[in-house]
Amino acid sequence: MAGIPTSVVAATGLVGGYGVARWTKKRPLGGVALAAAGAVAARGWQQKAGPKAAAALSGAYVAAFAGSHPLAKKIGAWPSVFAVAGGVALASWAVADRRG
Question: CB-based contacts of 27: which residues, under 8 Å, 6+ apart?
């Protein structure tokens, strides 16, 4: 997975985690997908940008997941998930991926 940008992994984890939970009607299964992608992204962040950046981006990933819930009440579930996934992807690209 060395060739896949961490921004893509993180965004896919947020979108995929919600999708799995919604379509299977098993929230824990969505949580597994979310956590697995988060772990892969965190490893990539650490390798590309160091432990401090990895910790900050991991915090942003978890905050995005948590923040998507109240945001969904205002704009809808899918728009909320796409918004937070885009925010995390942008942060990940800016901190870790744009360096090449």
Answer: 21
Q: How does pLDDT run across 22-76, given as a tens digit for each residue? A: 999 999 999 999 999 999 999 999 999 999 999 999 999 999 999 999 999 999 9
pLDDT band at 100 (very low <50, low <70, confident <90, very high): low
* H, E, C per residue of the chain: CCCCCHHHHHHHHHHHHHHHHHHHCCHHHHHHHHHHHHHHHHHHHHHHHCHHHHHHHHHHHHHHHHHHHHHHHHHCHHHHHHHHHHHHHHHHHHHHHCCC
Task: Report the b/e string of 11-32 with b at 16+ CB within 10 A.
Answer: bbbbbbbbebbeeeeeeeebee
What integer pLDDT is reported at residue 2 of this predicted model?
61
Tokens matching residue 2 = 């060395």
